[in-house]
Structure formats: structure tokens, C-alpha cells
Amino acid sequence: MSKAPRKVIITCAVTGAIHTPTMSDALPYKAEDIARQAIEAAEAGAAVLHLHARHPQTGAVSIDQEHFRAFLPVIHASTDAVVNLSTGGSLTNTVAERTAPALRFSPEMCSLNMGSMNFAMHPLAQRYKTWKFDWEEPYLRESDGYIFRNTFRDIAQAAHALEPHGIKFEHECYDVGQLYNLKFCMDTGLFKAPVFIQFVLGILGGIGADLDNLAFMKRTADKLFGKDYQWSVLGAGASQMNLAVAAAAMGGHVRVGLEDSLFITRGKLAASNAQQVRKVRALLEDLGHEIATPDEARAILALKGRERVAFS
Hints:
Elements: E1 7-8, E2 10-13, H1 31-44, E3 48-51, E4 53-54, E5 61-62, H2 65-69, H3 72-78, E6 82-85, H4 95-105, E7 109-113, H5 136-141, H6 152-162, E8 168-173, H7 176-187, E9 195-201, H8 211-225, E10 229-235, H9 240-249, E11 253-256, E12 263-265, E13 268-269, H10 273-286, E14 290-291, H11 294-301
Parallel strand pairs: 1-14, 2-3, 2-11, 3-6, 6-7, 7-8, 8-9, 9-10, 10-11
Antiparallel strand pairs: 4-5, 12-13
Helix pairs in contact: 1-3, 1-10, 4-6, 7-8, 9-10
């Protein structure tokens, strides 16, 4: 087990592409709300902001560059937090479509999924009888037929497209096999050490959210990458805080946010992203961990710097 880092990076995933507006009034989808909640999360202690875009009228998932443009400059002007743009986008888009916003705005970081999978949210549809928008129910119910495509060709296409921008990837691994996919890509020269890995636990179609699986993912990553990686954990739903505390104790970083869980405690919806950040920060500090500032996160992850983004 690796030595715990002196500083723990908190990432906040502000809105994502799983939850829909019916599920929580706190879930931001208008540009001004995404910007406000991102800034508040940074003020609460998030060094990294993981961002998706939404359609401002309907809350539907969007990869429209204008929807990103509506909040990125505001966030950049108001906080020095690292911005990490999703290349996941919608499960039905091609990799070229999903990487287009990152090519336009050249952020310091981007997520990159390391394998294809059955990415399903359809059980969520059983919890609601009425919906704010017509798209929500079919979007969820039809996910039992989705394949989230991230082939080796797709991964290489994204990597080659974004390489000139000096973007650091957050390699999202939803199961242990995707760690081996990343190792293969590194062995063939596609990615260079050190890498940053996000263990994603608790998504239907991926590895389950429990401590044994977290330890297994960490042990496998140690075997494959040695000391040439940093890592974080995303625990979906009720596992969010428990896995975050465990990850910090094991030497990792943490991710919270309304993309991953809509709740602050079991059965109680979170009022905002910042509320989750404040909670995980308090838990970690009570256990003696120090929280990384954005500039400390940049140093830990070897990022290019906020002056090299193109958010205007």
C-alpha cells in the first residue's frame, strides 16, 4: 500500500449525465446555476471541477460548445480551480463529438473512459411517477440497451486529438479490466507515466461500490503502474462518502458532487455541490488529512496551468 499523500485533492463533479432534473431541484442545468455551484464548490475546498454541459431549457445532456461557453469563462474568472471537462458526454455520441468541446476550450484536464461497458440507469426510472421534462423517462428507461463505447480505437482517437493541447487525462476505470486497458495503452506509447486514474465504483455495468473492490482496484493498479500514478475514487450513490474516506486513508484522492450522488446523508437530498464538498472536507480534516489547493493539485498532477486554457 502506497504512502498517503501529504495533500488530498477534492474533485467536485457538478452535474454529470446520469441524474435528471426531476430527481433533485439542486441539480444544476442552467449555465448560471452550473457556474454558481462550481464556484461555491471551489470556495468550499474543491481543487478540481469536473464539468458537463446541459441544455439550459430542458436540462438534457449537451455537448454543444455554446452551452459550455456559457459557463466556462465565468468559472475561470471567479476561481483558480482546475477545470476538468468530460469527454463522456452522451452515451449515444461518437468519440469525435464527445471530444469536440475539449478541442475548442483546451482545459487543463479531461476525463477519458478506458473501456466499453453496459452503462445503465434504467432502475432509477422506477422511483418517479411524474417528470419535469418529457425526455427524462425514456432517457433512463432506454439505458438498459446502451453500450457506452470506448474501444481501443476510440481511446487512441481521443488521445491523439487532444495531445497537442497538453491536457492531462483523468483515466476513468469502471472495472479492473479497464486498468489493464490503460496499461496496454501505456505499453504501446499512447499515454506516458505518471497517469491519473479515477476508480469508478457503483455504476450499474461496472464494479460494485464496496471496500473489497476498492482494495482490489488499488492492489491491481499498484501491480500494473507501480509508483507512476495518482488515483482518486468515485463512489456512486450511498457509497460516496464512505469510499472517499477510505480512499484518503489508502493514499488516494477523492471525488464528490451531484453527478455521483444527489444525497448528503441517506434519504436526504443535498442542497448543493458545495454542501458535499464541505462534508467530505470536514471528514478528511478530522482524520488529519490536509486538503490540496488548486495550485497544489496542479503540482501533484503535473498540469499545464490555467493560463493555457482557451475559455474565452
